[in-house]
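dumping the sequnces here before i forget
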Amino acid sequence: MAASFLFSQFMGGLTTAMFLFLIASGLSLVFGVMRVLNFAHGSFYMIGAYLAWQAMQWLHPLAAGFWPAALLAALGVALLGAIVERLLLRHLYGREELYQLLLTYALVLILGDVAKFIWGTGQLSVSTPPGLGGSIQILGTTQPLYSLFIIALGPAIAVAGWLVLNRTGAGRMVRAASYDREMLDALGADVGLIYTGMFVVSSFLAGLSGALVTPIESIVPGMDVLIIVQAFIVVVIGGMGSLWGTFWGSVIYGQVLAFGILIFPGFSLFSVFALMAVILIVRPWGLFGRPV
Amino acid sequence: MPRRGSGLIGHIPWTLIVFLLASTVPWLGSRYDTFLAGQIVIDALFAVSLNLLLGTTGLVSFGHVAYFGVGAYVCGILMKTYGMPFIVAFPAAGIGAGVFALVSGYFCVRLTKIYFAMLTLAFSQIIWAICYKWDAVTGGDQGLPEIPYPNLDWMSVIPGLGELTDSARFYLLTLALVAVSLAVLRRIVRSPFGRMLTTIRDNPERAAFIGLNVRAYQLAAFVIAGAFAGLAGALYGIFSRGVFADYVFWSKSAEVIIMTILGGMDYFWGPPVGAMALVWLNQQITDYTQYWPFVLGSLLLLLLFVFPGGIVGGLVAGFRLARRRLVPRNA
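..and the predicted 3d for all of it:
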């Protein structure tokens, strides 16, 4: 009985972890390449959730409407990211980091209210996509299929991201931009385009994770500022700008949260923050990051 | 920091006039006016304490609300749970916040720029988690409601204060304590120590090269800023009749930064002006719409792209432009 209980905690932690990885990977990429800590990443996630719900309403007659709705939501948020980067963020790259932080915070305020204005303050929910609604028995525990899908999706995205970054020309450009922006610029590469592209990919991931969370969590105002703190902890633990760091950071976060509840009931939140503080003190660049 | 003008305007004791005007609010204004004025006065101290880091030392703290919160909880717990008098609880709040700033600041100042901002944010979220979860001491998500007013009967001795309500008397006490705190902070900013902080802001490498212990100076500024934020928090807890974990959430740190930038972080009196403008604007806007965050966000965009100097920066620039137009160049 004890083993199956521990296994179920472990799987619960893993589901949390893979969701957080989907969200935090975009945050981490933007920080790694552009040195911008994007508070609005959580807002993009929230907008993705609302857009998915909206698209589901439009696609209602279709039985398998969830997947196109999720894709539409992610593309919508990617477009929003492109607009934000081109119109606003771009003009603050040379300025102090305070201004970039405040710009993304201004977006948190604005997007939060825009979402309230359009979709109201009530809870919205989306039903689980057909085929993933059931559950299966593993080691005497009941695991929802949708959780297993998320647990499989996380590593798949991580591997895909790693392949793009390390095995393609575009990925090489992105890595070069994160090492030395001026040099890449001097060599004739369009760094501005790389930055826009990174921001769009990051927004796409935020929107996609927002859409994918809708079957298991209701969509409410305030989900933006709650998730950004968690994503922030994950990237700090794993290392800002490191894809695998973010992956392992998410896994650690999920497990500390799942088992922290058993050790300090009521203080699991505290154990996660304490872990982050210890890591920032000992290795400010995170477990897998590199010193800057 | 720009010199005060030597003309007629420079000789008027502006701070004294503002202080005297602010002290007439309980008589001339309504209860609500006194409430707004109290909020402005406390926010002014909080924002000036942040600006010791932001404007003077060049440290972007994204977790300044932690020290405000520690002060509010220390004062609230001492007064409500242990029945201590205000004269003990108020300094204890400053000391408590200062000690916590010393511990967290010790680690924070070892990092620079964005990493500094992140670690301050992390510490403030730890404080938030403690306040939110430690039911036995902080009241958890219920907070500490109904913190008593300090005993202000001694104020009746002063003619004219006898018939005032407790809240009006506490406003006057707050005003006096904030005025003293601001005077102290101004002395600190203008002292040789304050000049060193500005040197560190402008060029930390050069400051280190001429023999300054940059981290020690930054830590000292961090502790002073934290202690005064704690005093502001102590006043706020009593003033708003309760201390709640919401006060310590990270978005509050962003609000006080906005206040500081709105007023102008290059000027000592910028943050108080920002506090006044923001409280006034909030009160005006919420009459018309519930979408105050949208207005605040748009205002922030305007500040970032159009008026990075804030209100005071804009006024000073306008004043200089006007003087250049009016006074011939070779006069």
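Chain B touches chain A at residues 54, 60, 62, 107, 110-111, 113-115, 117-119, 121-123, 125-126, 129-130, 132-133, 250-251, 254, 257-258, 261, 291, 293-294, 296-298, 300-301, 304-305, 308 (CB under 8 Å).
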